């Protein structure tokens, strides 16, 4: 390998530079995922232990090295236990990479149109709702918290589920392809409590929370205001129109967007 330069007795090659760059990128991504959580302090604590262990071995501090080795000997198990939620988020982040998404079959946009129509009508009625649309993979654990349905998605069915007096309205609906897998599902709450200075309710926090842990997109209809929001990758977009909702859903499932027309009338116009 081509030698670039030397630092004392250390020889630095191009491969070393690439190796350092990759490790730096990994640490940067880990920090970005952990930023703002309690795990950040634990992460820096582990880094400090590794640095101390490295220094102790260089200057031959045997007792300190032995003590630190006791900790580093079980660091893999400790890392998995302490950072279980963050490891899940990292794996989800990798799964969302476009390189991996090319192996996922594009879905039909029909379900996106049906969901958008249902959400818009629920919004007009001010019936609260959370609809989770799976983009890739599955979230079987969350499906099992609700009532399994395995029914073809339809506007009327979604409206019936989220009717306030329905026994299934309290919870989320999970949809994969064009099938409602389950209703009345329990979702994890996000630690995010405010967006743009506005306090989030439990419904919006649940909608954001599931997108932080899985490759999904969630549609939230506010019971108080009737506003429509979308959560994806831990971010929230509020106040969406019917057409904006359709575009966002179709883009999320990787299908071509087709603007729909209403039945021909004397003055034809786009379905808004």
Question: What features would you highlight for this structure?
Answer:
two-stranded antiparallel ribbon, disordered C terminus, elongated, single chain, 11 helices, alpha+beta, 11 strands, seven-stranded mixed sheet, 272 residues, YojJ-like (1
Task: Give the helix/strand layout.
Elements: E1 3-7, E2 10-13, H1 14-34, H2 39-58, H3 62-72, H4 75-82, H5 84-95, H6 98-101, H7 110-125, E3 129-134, H8 140-143, E4 147-152, H9 155-161, E5 172-176, E6 179-185, E7 194-195, E8 198-199, H10 202-213, E9 216-221, E10 228-232, E11 235-237, H11 242-253
Parallel strand pairs: 3-5
Antiparallel strand pairs: 1-2, 3-9, 4-6, 5-6, 7-8, 9-10, 10-11
CATH topology-level name of the largest domain: YojJ-like (1
Helix content: 40-55%
Query: Main beta sheet: strand number and arrangement?
Result: 7 strands, mixed
**Compute the gyration radius: what is it?**
24 Å
Beta-strand percentage? 15-25%
Q: Which class best fits the helix and strand makeup? A: alpha+beta
CATH architecture of the largest domain: 3-Layer(aba) Sandwich
As an assembly, this protein is single chain
- As laid out across the biggest beta sheet, the strand order is 4-6-5-3-9-10-11
Average pLDDT, to the nearest integer?
77
Number of strands: 11
Shape assignment: elongated
CATH class group of the largest domain: Alpha Beta
CATH homologous superfamily grouping of the largest domain: DNA integrity scanning protein, DisA, N-terminal domain
């Amino acid at each position: 390998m081509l030698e670039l330069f030397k630092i004392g007795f250390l020889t630095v090659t191009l491969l070393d530079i690439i190796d350092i760059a990759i490790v730096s990128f990994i640490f940067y991504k880990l920090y970005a995922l952990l930023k703002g959580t309690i795990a950040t302090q634990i992460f820096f604590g582990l880094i400090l232990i590794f640095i101390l262990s490295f220094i102790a071995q260089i200057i031959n501090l045997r007792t300190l090295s032995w003590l630190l080795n006791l900790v580093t000997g079980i660091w893999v198990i400790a890392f998995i236990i302490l950072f279980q939620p963050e490891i899940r988020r990292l794996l989800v982040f990798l799964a969302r990479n476009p390189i991996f998404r090319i192996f996922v079959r594009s879905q039909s946009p029909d379900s996106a149109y049906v969901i958008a129509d249902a959400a818009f009508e629920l919004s007009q009625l001010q019936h609260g709702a959370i609809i989770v649309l799976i983009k890739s993979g599955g979230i079987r654990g969350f499906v099992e918290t609700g009532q399994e349905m395995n029914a073809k998605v339809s506007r009327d069915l979604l409206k019936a589920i989220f009717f306030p007096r329905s026994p299934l309205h309290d919870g989320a609906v999970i949809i994969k392809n064009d099938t409602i897998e389950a209703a009345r599902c329990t979702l994890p709450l996000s630690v995010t409590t405010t967006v743009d200075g506005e306090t989030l309710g439990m419904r919006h926090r649940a909608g954001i929370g599931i997108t932080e842990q899985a490759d999904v997109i969630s549609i939230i209809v506010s019971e108080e205001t009737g506003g429509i929001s979308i959560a994806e990758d831990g971010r929230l977009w509020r106040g969406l129109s019917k057409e904006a909702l359709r575009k966002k859903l179709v883009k999320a499932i990787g299908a071509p967007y087709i603007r729909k027309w209403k039945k021909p009338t004397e003055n034809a116009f786009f379905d808004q």
